[in-house]
Amino acid sequence: MTKLPRSLSRPLRIAFGLWLSAFGNSAIAASTEILSTNDLSKHVDSTYQVSGIDPFVVIKLEDEATTAGNITVDLGTEISDIKLELFFKSRQSIFDPHYKASYRVDHFPVSLKLPTGALKSNILRIDIVGCPSCRLDLSNLISSDQSSRSSKLLEPIEILNGLKQLNADGQVLQLNDWSLNDLGGTLTEFEITADDPFLVSPKLDLSTRGLAGVYFKFEAPSSNQAWDSYQFFYQTEHHGFSLKASSDMRISQNKHGQESETAELFIPLSFLADDFPPSKSLKQIRLDLPLIDGKWALLESKLIHDSQLEQYLALKPKQLVHTKLQRATGLRLIKKSLLNVLADRWFVASYLLLIITVIIVFFRAFRRYK
Amino acid sequence: MSIESLLGLNAFSEGTRALPKMPKKINNSQFLIVALGAGILLRLALMPFFAHVDLFSEARRVFYVIENDYLFDNSHRFVVFYIEVIFAAFSTLFIDVTDGLFHISDPTQSVSSIIDYGYFLNDPNIYRHLFFFKLPYLVFDIATAIVIWKFVENPSHRRIALLLWLFNPLTIFSTYIFGRFEVISLFFLAMTALQLKYDRVFFASVFFAISLHCREINILFAPFFLLALIDPKDHWLRNAIVLMVSTTIIGLLFLLPNWLIDFSGGDTQLFVDPTASTKGDTLNKLLSLGYYWFYPIVICLAALAIYQWETSYKPKAERFVISASVVLFIYFGFNVHSVHYAAWLVLMPILAMQYDKKVVLPFVALFGVWIVLWLLKTDSGVFTLFLAAPLSTDFIGLGHFPSFYNKLTAGSSLDLFQSIQLMRSLFLVVMGFFAYRVLRQRG
User: What CATH number does the domain located at A28-161 have?
Assistant: First the structure.
């Protein structure tokens, strides 16, 4: 039989699919090619056993499935509650973690609503999260079966459609989404209750391009220390909250004898995009507080854009140490040192003036003794 | 005040005189100006850009005293300390230090923690801090250069002596990279020698006593200083009186700070770690060969004392300078301590050039051996290819030099340990070479 050219066959097949969909015909199972699996062991009966901590399957969909707004997934197993993550953007077999949809699933088969315009290619990765001992039957993994049209489409619990870009006005972090550890009360009034107090922001998933840093305004009880130590952590695509990627600060206390003071803090993060390896996304931030008894309150928190840097730079703590995954070397180190020196303009100006003065004084003395 | 009067150029009668066997394009005064100018510029170029944890620890103690008004406490190295206090107080006109950067929670812990030091390195004003901390050292360093210029009379020798002082890697490293105060101590020793040269025993004794408040090692010179005061041409009673007066001056000035601080109710133990071993323990350890180098040094020093006694016909200053040089050769022949202590070795052999001692070649050998030894025998960030800078290990991206060398020589018989032993032996050889050159009688 002569095959139709691809340019002709594709619209015909899509039209056929739409026709089927419109007339409510059932059981058109799209054939799906499994390209690869990870942490899944294939048994003789063609079922798959989860065998590691990162089970996923990479599939190639038939063309008509990519045009539908939903797909039906059947892992052929009894489950109670697991999470499926669909990664839908890849380049050379590497899936971009910033393009994914997550679903909470409690039965199979299940119809998943896809993000609008998500399936631009027909390669998809499905991660199975929270099912360490599942045995999966992937023979009917994907179908465009419309018989269950009456059943509800499952909405994603989280969609990442690329990284959000910070605009020139920065981004205010809503205070109601923060979580508290070893802290009692609400974010606008809390106290330290144990020895590891910290605040964790909501998920950010923000591009580091244009990100100058983070701003905090909070009310802190006074202490009798020369300074109080704060610690700041950030998650990127390379790491979670880690001491190896953190910032330590010492904030001097006011000496006015007040019970509390309003403190403003700017922590620069512009190095994230320039770091080696560069971090493309800021996922979440965390601020660890010093152990001071009394009433605390987080009043404001913002992500600051490069264009706002001048306005916030004065709030950068004078005593600040960044711990980074990799330290600069060679020319990068020299460039960084030079920028640090030039940042103290009054010093540079006085230093150069002193050197010029020394040259002039000794030159004149030399000429006098000719 | 002009720079010429500061340098005392008008006092040099031979200053503008043409020199025999020397290039006549530049006279002595011009030479001094060019050398000092270049020396100062080199030092200024280094001062703000190299830090070390010891320098920061010293600065913390200084600011602790200023902040808490403990000006009449701490008798330890008090001359150096008060000079540093004066310059640090001056620096507060240009730098805000009220943010607790120099805060010490426990003053008896002499060395700062790496965390505190990390904050210091990241301080936006670190370059100002480093510049002002080292400013007193620059003043005393250049003052020492001028004393050397005055001490050495032979026109060609004094030029070499000046260049050796101003551009030797030991002094430059110890003072402007490692950031230690050795030059202050050396200045007072140089002044002691200069006063002896002009037979001013009283002033020599005062300067020597001051030097004892700068570095403890100077106590090793004390017997040789007193021996140098004995003049066989004088009556024994005169010699006895001179010795007694000098000993009294040195003793009184040595003990005075402690007495005054005690009398005023000050705390002489301000920075003393109470958990450190007691003096008695240290002495017992010393005498029981706990320090393996103790007895060879005692034997050599005794031999040196006999030598000095037998050469008592020589001028006082010469005997003091030669003996002090050899004391250090003996000391460093058997132990090398920390990298910057080698700076003590530089002054006296340079002064010995006044007595026709040929020390240039031993100096070149010393610089070579010292650099290689301390490249091998160091810890991270103390002495690496980029010297004491915190940049050091990261700059070449190979880690600190001993680790790199270890990897390079893995499996070979000349591993790191063997190489260090070899260089220590060579260090002893160089000390012997130095001793030969300064003890050798010429003509």
Answer: 2.60.120
